[in-house]
Amino acid sequence: MALDVLAVGAHPDDVELGVGGIICSLTAAGRRVGIVDLTRGELGTRGTVKGREREAAAAADILGVKIRENLAYRDGGVDNNRDQQRGLATVIRRFKPQILLLPPPVCRHPDHRRAAALGIDAAFFSGLSRFETHDDGEVQGPWRPQHVLHYMLSASFTPTLVVDVSRFWDQRTRALLAFESQFHVPGYKAASDEPETFVSNADFLGWIEARARTYGYPIGATHAEPLLYHGGPLGVNDLFGVLSRTREFV
Fold it and tell me: d(Cα 132, Cα 240) in Å, to the nearest integer?
């Protein structure tokens, strides 16, 4: 099944946190979107691997995503090495996405930063005919996504694109809160060895929404998600088509 968009996360819930609203908008428009999580999140302070698998499946249903895979790389061990490049390139070649969404190149979590570099290099190598990968015993042909973009997590960057996700904010939030072990969900019963974390604090969700409102306000949206285009410049055929959205403030 060819995909229009493939979103990569270092851990289950990264994609929901960074581009959940964008994915909701894409699936609502009939676009085929898939998610690949690089690790199972086994180093997480809260929750369990099995629990996070269930949460990831529930979140995918809410997002409207039909394909979600996990490469089961070691949590804390995401690395831009040849084995992991080959594994991710295999997935890219299997689903042939036009657009690849990656974690940010600068972030507080080492896995996020390394996943960004890994994704960029895997996308490049997946386009080389002599870079051999196999899927179900069959040699794969080359495929390279047309566009690679980074989404925002804990560290800010100056975005290339800001996408209006106002209509989908509630849906996106429901998908994020499907990870009840990771974020602030009233009623979740944390185990005795599960202290509050950077992301499970109630103020974290408030900060995430405040950021979405901050990026949304200048474009006349209540909520927006930022993206950083990799490898610009961005070529266009129709300048008016690209600039068709009117600006609320000029």
Answer: 41
